[in-house]
């Protein structure tokens, strides 16, 4: 069989890289190696990589696999067509499932068996190049980035407004509860706009630390601070000619809001360490789950900044306000994940449908997607049943309250999830306040919300 494709091996052990290069050069046209993933984004932009064998741990003393999962997600974000096989010395089934859910093709455990490793990599390569017959026969998955509008009356006014304003360059503010799809709507607006051929750049204001705010948004020049080893462009510059999406805008500290306002007003910025203004041509979209008018009244958000970002206000209704769309959305997610995990699932049984419709879905579409993905993995046969949905007791229709018995006890995960939901509700969606009330950092709260589909 003729050698085909480019394989990239990422592992911090030089002996492993050398051994694998000798082994796999017999099977692939080109084998590249990296001892650190830090230059991985640059390499996959420059080289036509088809397949990556990715180690899960790179930092000394750390073996939880989180680094590998982070780089897996980065690869899939940048180049979703690249197949990734995870490589780890720790045979953890939960880690394997997480990696598969995040887009990995397969999972190989060290120490490896040569024949099994080669077979796994070749199967992943064939899958990525359309040579897998099962893949060819699989039903077409819905596009994960596509906006699902549905038929609900609650959404129709929003859709009409989006159609009207997308072609303009007006600044847009998207509001809605967590999980309603604000980022997806932002991508849809960009797709419908005259800037569709330009870049869409996203910045999560809740995830950028205060100390790195200016560097992340405006860039920096080499030597401007301790770790500035090279010039770096910021989000405003990267989005030139396209759309800049600022998610969780309400989480931007008050004292930094003036700097953002100046850049928006002037459509120019100054890199950290420079004194030369640079202009940028962007279309600005912001999103939040909080009431910015109320924040202005409390002195937590600048009124002049709100005026600038809020030329057009789009509000996405909660999923419980568009019940007609719950089952169609669940069907789309089921089709996607049945194809992804090789399940022959055709739909939901009657009891499962009733349960899906009766749930309040506090986490909205994101929570529904998480539940259906899990159900697709756990289901047998051709229909999803209620037990596969694994909905927490709080999501079932309210029963007549009886004295709790030992059988009513929740798992620790269910208790933690319920506690997070209560804290967010009590704080009116203010994640910073909810994190403080729960005694965790804001980033930890984000991670737990993603884990539980909130």
Question: Which terms summarize this structure?
Answer:
single chain; 454 residues; alpha/beta; Rossmann fold; Helicase, Ruva Protein, domain 3; 3 domains; five-stranded parallel β-sheet; 16 strands; 43% helix; globular
General description of the model:
The modification 4-aspartylphosphate is found at residue 55. GO terms for molecular function: ATP binding; sequence-specific DNA binding. InterPro entries: AAA+_ATPase (IPR003593), AAA_lid_NorR (IPR058031), CheY-like_superfamily (IPR011006), Homeodomain-like_sf (IPR009057), HTH_Fis (IPR002197), P-loop_NTPase (IPR027417), Sig_transdc_resp-reg_receiver (IPR001789), Sigma_54_int (IPR002078). This is Sigma-54 dependent transcriptional regulator. With 454 residues, the protein is α/β, with parallel strands linked by helices. The chain folds into 3 domains: 6-137, Response regulator (Rossmann fold, 3-Layer(aba) Sandwich); 156-317, Rossmann fold, CATH 3.40.50; 323-399 and 409-452, Helicase, Ruva Protein, domain 3, CATH 1.10.8. The protein contains 20 helices and 16 strands. It has a 5-stranded parallel β-sheet with strand order 2-1-3-4-5, sandwiched between helices. It has a 5-stranded parallel β-sheet with strand order 7-10-13-6-14. Strands 8-9 form a two-stranded antiparallel sheet. Helix 3 links the parallel strand 3 and strand 4. The N and C termini lie far apart (48 Å). Residues 131-142 and 393-408 have low confidence and may be disordered.
